[in-house]
Structures are given as C-alpha cells and as structure tokens.
Automatic annotation (TrEMBL):
GO cellular component, one term: cytosol
Gene Ontology MF term list: deaminase activity
Pfam families xrefs: Ribonuc_L-PSP
Family from the record: Belongs to the RutC family.
Record-given protein name: RidA family protein
SUPFAM superfamilies: YjgF-like
Lineage: Bacteria, Pseudomonadati, Pseudomonadota, Alphaproteobacteria, Hyphomicrobiales
Length: 129
C-alpha cells in the first residue's frame, strides 16, 4: 500500500498532489516515458486540457498493461509550454488522480519535439503484489 503524505509541518499543497509518497519494500515499480497528447489517428488537439486527457489515456493503458491503475501512481512529472497551459493540464490531472493524490511536479518548458505539443506527462507507479 502506498503511503501518500502531506505532513502538518508543511504548507498545504498548491493543488491536487501529496508532498511525498512512501513505497514499501518489495513493491513492483513502473517508470513511464513522457506521454504526449497525440490521438491514435496521429491528430493533436489544440488545447492543453485535451492534450493532457490523451496523455492520461496513454498512461492508463501503460498502467493497465502492468496490472496497475491510477491509484498506484507515486509521482507525476508534467511539462507545459506556457503558464497559460497550466489550467488545462491541472483540470485534466484533477479528473484522473485519486484521493489522496500522488506527489507531483509541474514545469514550464520552452517546447517539445513538435510545436503543436503543449503538454507532456510522465509517471512513476508502484504496486505491491
């Protein structure tokens, strides 16, 4: 069982995330590459929220392939290309994350491999068998 923590000695998180997560010994780990907001037909939606939804859809497939689910996510690293893209990403993230949520970092970057991409998301997950 993952132990997701927000200690009373720290300020509350700015959004839906936990400050830390303890992964018990003997737990199986999954490390996912960054997922981009591209559909199965290779189209890329314009908005960051729609792109993030596709990222989380891909992450869901990776988790399922490993016999895991969103509740098994330990950490999210997300990247957006502009501060204005944060709200769309965060709305999608908040719909997909369980309570309590995993640890999370969000960074603003100058861009990705193609200019139409606005969001990239990678995760680490863990599950005790």
């Amino acid at each position: 069982m993952l132990d997701k923590r927000t200690p009373a000695a720290l300020p509350a998180p700015f959004a839906k995330y936990s400050h830390s997560v303890i992964v018990p010994a003997g737990t199986r780990m999954l490390f996912c590459s960054g997922q981009l907001g591209i559909a199965a037909d290779a189209t890329v939606p314009e908005g960051s929220e729609a792109q993030a939804d596709l990222c989380f859809q891909a992450i869901g497939h990776l988790l399922a392939d490993a016999g895991m689910g969103f509740a098994d996510i330990v950490r999210i690293n997300a990247f957006v290309t502009d501060r204005s893209e944060m709200a769309g990403y965060m709305a999608s993230r908040d719909r997909h994350m369980p309570t309590p949520p995993p640890a999370s970092t969000l960074m603003i970057v100058s861009g990705f491999t193609r200019p139409e991409f606005k969001v990239e998301i990678e995760i680490v997950a863990a599950k005790k068998d």
